[in-house]
UniProtKB/TrEMBL annotation:
GO terms for cellular component: plasma membrane. It is found in: Cell membrane. Pfam families: BPD_transp_1 (PF00528), OppC_N (PF12911). Belongs to the binding-protein-dependent transport system permease family. Signal peptide: none annotated. It is a multi-pass membrane protein. It comes from Clostridium symbiosum (strain WAL-14163). SUPFAM superfamilies: MetI-like (SSF161098). Residues 85-276 form the ABC transmembrane type-1 domain. This is Oligopeptide ABC transporter.
Length: 289
């Protein structure tokens, strides 16, 4: 038991060391952490809410009480930027969690038991992946009505095949190991074999996919909101802030209405991708860091 713990600690220590040696990955982690803390902790202390209208803020440039200016309705851009950040991160994280909760159990059971269940799960994933994702999401959101919950659930439900297929391949390779075959031979319970021996050895690549899926979900939510089918006003998201700034007048003469959400979106996605790349390199023993 002691030897096993030492090996686990050694593997964790090696991962942390290799990850910390990747400067972009470390920078991405701290930038994302900073963004998350700001959008969670700062909004309650702002003088304006995301939907509050101030006549003096109507198309107002940055300055005074409105640090980033006001929009074409008279709402504070800074407040909408931070509250919108909450929504974008919420959709990205929760929708990815929904995909993981659906996809990983299905993929693991399909790979472990094979047979009819394997055929059903794999064909279902083929069907889900055969549809153009954006068009299908637009159809479902329009059918159920655009809202934060609808967008989150739809993106999450449609994202499970990737995780199911990935864990399916990992479990297939781990399942052939001698210690798994030995556990099956001595009559160990399937649940114990799956949770104690297969899952810990097959789950590592999933963490990398989770980071990239969060980034993809944030982009999807922003795209839907930009098209008017995502988060609906007066609630704010970075996507619908960009949607409200589509006119030529705003794009050319009022950059404070679209530059902040655009930059926030780019910086957040880059940070998440840097974290994912760092995790991938840290988990790959062939990568020199």
């Amino acid at each position: 038991m002691k030897g096993n713990n030492e090996r686990k600690e050694s593997a964790a220590g090696s991962f942390i060391r290799r990850y910390c040696n990747n400067k972009l990955a470390v920078a991405g982690f701290f930038v994302l952490l900073t963004i998350a803390l700001i959008v969670i902790l700062v909004p309650p202390f702002l003088p304006f809410s995301e939907a509050e209208i101030d006549a003096l803020a109507f198309n107002a440039p940055p300055g005074g009480k409105h640090i980033l200016g006001g929009d074409d309705v008279g709402r504070d851009v800074l407040s909408r930027l931070l509250y919108g950040g909450r929504v974008s991160l919420f959709v990205g994280i929760i929708s990815t969690a929904v995909s993981v909760v659906i996809g990983i159990p299905l993929g693991m059971i399909a790979a472990f038991y094979r047979g009819v269940f394997e055929i059903i799960v794999m064909r279902l994933s083929d069907i889900f992946m055969s549809f153009p994702a954006t068009i299908l999401i637009l159809f479902l959101v329009s059918m159920f009505g655009p809202s934060i919950i609808t967008v989150t659930v739809v993106i999450g439900v449609l994202g499970w095949p990737k995780f199911a297929r990935q864990i399916y391949g990992s479990v297939l390779s781990v399942r052939e190991k001698d210690y798994i075959e030995g556990g099956i031979a001595i009559g160990a319970r399937d649940s114990k074999i799956i949770t104690r021996y297969i899952l810990p050895n097959a789950i590592a690549p999933i963490f990398i996919s989770i980071t990239f899926r969060i980034a993809s979900a944030i982009i999807l939510e922003s795209s839907l909101s930009f098209l008017g089918m995502g988060v609906q006003p007066p609630a704010a998201s970075w996507g619908n802030m960009l949607y409200n700034a589509q006119s030529i007048t705003i794009l050319t003469s009022r950059p404070w209405m679209w530059v902040p959400p655009g930059l926030a979106l780019v910086i957040t996605i880059l940070s998440i991708n840097f974290i994912g790349n760092g995790m991938r390199d840290a988990l790959d023993p062939k990568t020199k860091i």
